[in-house]
Amino acid sequence: DAGVIQSPRHEVTEMGQEVTLRCKPISGHNSLFWYRQTMMRGLELLIYFNNNVPIDDSGMPEDRFSAKMPNASFSTLKIQPSEPRDSAVYFCASRGLAGGSGELFFGEGSRLTVL
Amino acid sequence: AQSVTQLDSHVSVSEGTPVLLRCNYSSSYSPSLFWYVQHPNKGLQLLLKYTSAATLVKGINGFEAEFKKSETSFHLTKPSAHMSDAAEYFCVVSEAAGNKLTFGGGTRVLVKP
């Protein structure tokens, strides 16, 4: 299996621009998570989906952030408009077994720099 | 509610000496517990997991962890550190049902030659 695939790996953009991060989970996994990691705040859960349905988006910072999962093999995290404080590494992770023993499988992350 | 506390934000060891990373958790239910490692500019990788079977769990790269319910601890150890162990380590607790996972704040390990 190719693992969780994220793109782009690196993105540099200017403040005010729209940013779209993409994720392909492991085939057969039915839960997908978006995390953000910064030096100051560590690893934060933004949103997670179960069977393509958003279950908990309480971690999404504000209305500038949105996430979709149109099908079981693809998800996007969009920031519009972007701000310098959004600079972080964004991780996508998938899980095949909800609850208890199922571990998360992480992608390599998308490093976002907003100038 | 569940929570995870990693007692050390940084640990420094010499190559060839033991490593101990401490993790305490709280959970209303019998939890599953995980340790993840993150090398620089990489995603998180599972080291090992506890899921109510044997309390001593062996993972990859010579790491192991012991689940101690009475102490609500899940400390990670390795008998002999290698330079490649320099990374950040996260302790994670998962609720019995659903998708609530709670991450500790991480412990950054430095290995000195």
Radius of gyration based on Cα positions of chain B: 13 Å
Percent of residues of chain B in helical segments? under 10%
Number of helices of chain B: 0
| Largest pleated sheet of chain A | 7 strands, mixed
Amino- and carboxy-terminal Cα gap of chain B: 41 Å
What is the element string of chain A, with H for helices and E for strands?
Answer: EEEEEEEEEEE
Tally of contiguous helical segments of chain A: 0
Please, what is the average pLDDT of chain A?
A: 93
Q: Supply the helix-strand structural class of chain B.
A: mainly beta
Low-confidence stretches of chain B: none
Residues in β-strands, percent of chain A: over 45%
- pLDDT averaged residue by residue of chain B: 92
Q: Give the assembly state of these chains.
A: heterodimer
Q: Any low-confidence stretches of chain A, pLDDT <50, length ≥5? A: none
Describe the main β-sheet of chain B briefly: 6 strands, mixed
- Counting DSSP E segments of at least 2 residues, the number of strands of chain B comes to 12
* Shape designation of chain A: globular
The interface involving the most residues is between:
A-B, 26 and 23 residues
Structural class of chain A: mainly beta
